[in-house]
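ok trying this again, last paste got cut off
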Amino acid sequence: MADKDYYKTLGVQKNATKEEIKKAFKKLALKYHPDRAPDDKKKEYEEEFKKINEAVSVLGDDKKRQQYDQYGSSSFQGGPGFEGFDFSDIMSQFRSGAFGNFDDVFDQLFGGSGRRSSSRGSDLLYETEITLEEAAQGTTQTLSLNKLERCPECSGRGATQFESCHHCHGSGYMKRTQRTPFGLFQQTGPCPYCRGRGELPQDSCAACAGEGAQRKKKKLEVTIPAGIEAGMRLRVPGEGEIGEQNGPAGDLYVQVQVKLHPYFERRENDLHITIPLSFTQAALGDEIEVPTINGKAKLTIPAGTASETVFRMRGKGLPSVHGHASGDEMVKVRIEVPSKLSRKQKDLLLQLHEDKPSQSFLKKIFG
C-alpha cells in the first residue's frame, strides 16, 4: 500500500505547528462537511472527510506524528493506530453541531475529552513612564490598547442563532457509561455536543467568524497613585484579553517607570539634592530658598556651616503609596570657592587675618 502524505492532505508544511494544523483541519472540515455535499458527490465528500480526519488524528497527536515522520503511514497498518476508530461518529457530531463543533471534534481527535470548557483570558502587561513630579502628586494616563474583546454582534457566543441541543434535550448534561476493570460505571457530565450549554449554534457570526472575539483598539484611563515607585505594577481587573469559549477576561498590569530627575535623587520616599553655597553665606549664615518637588521652601543656614553638611527638611519628600507619612528632603550644601577674585575681594579677605587651619593642625602633631 502506498504511503499517505498527511501533510499534503491537510495542505500544511512538515514543520507546521499544532495551531496551523488545527486551522487547516477546520477549513477542510467545513469544505467537505457531508451535509454540504451536492447529491451527486455525497460519497466523494465522505471519503475526503475521512481522509482529513485520518490525517489530523495522526498529526494532532505528538507521539503518532513522530512515528509517522519516522516510518510513514504504513507504520499504523495492522497496529493500534486506527483500529476501532469510528469516523461515522465524528461525522455525526458535525451534523448535530451544524458546523459549530470544530473545536470539540479537534480535541477528540487530539486525544482530548471531546469538550472544551471556557477558560480565563490572558493577562496583559503595559509599560509606561512618568516624571518624578507626577510620582509625587499622582496622575492619570490614557493607555492605547490593542486586545481581544468579546464580539459585540454575538456577545462572545460565536453565533447568533441557536436551538436546543437534542442530544441532552437542552439540559447541558449527559449520562455516560464507562467500562473499567471493575465493571461498567455510569456518570453524568457536560454534553460533548453543546459543551454543556444546552443549545447548538445554527450559524456562524459573520463579524468574528465564529470565534466569539475580535481584536480591537481601546483607550483606557488609568489612575497612578501618588508616591508610586519605579517598577511597581498596577492591576486593572478584567482589562486583559477575553477568554476562550466566552470565558472571563484576564487582567491588565501597568508597570510604571519613573524618569530620572535633573536635580533630585530619590531614595525610597526621601529626596536628596545638593545646593551650592558661597563662602560668606557659610561663614556668616543666611536664609536661602531651596527647590522642593512641589515648589520652594526657606532653609536657614547657621553661621560657620561646613561644606558637605546635610540639612533635613521634614515632610518635603515624596508621599508614601501605602498611606504612611511623607519622606524628607535632604539638602547637602557645598561651598563654592571662586576661581577668580577682584582686587577688592582679595583685600577684604586679607583684612580677616584668619588663622591657617592646616598650620594649626600640623603644630598639634609636631609641636
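PB: full thing came through this time. Residues 124-153+213-258 form a domain with the HSP40/DNAj peptide-binding domain fold (CATH 2.60.260.20).
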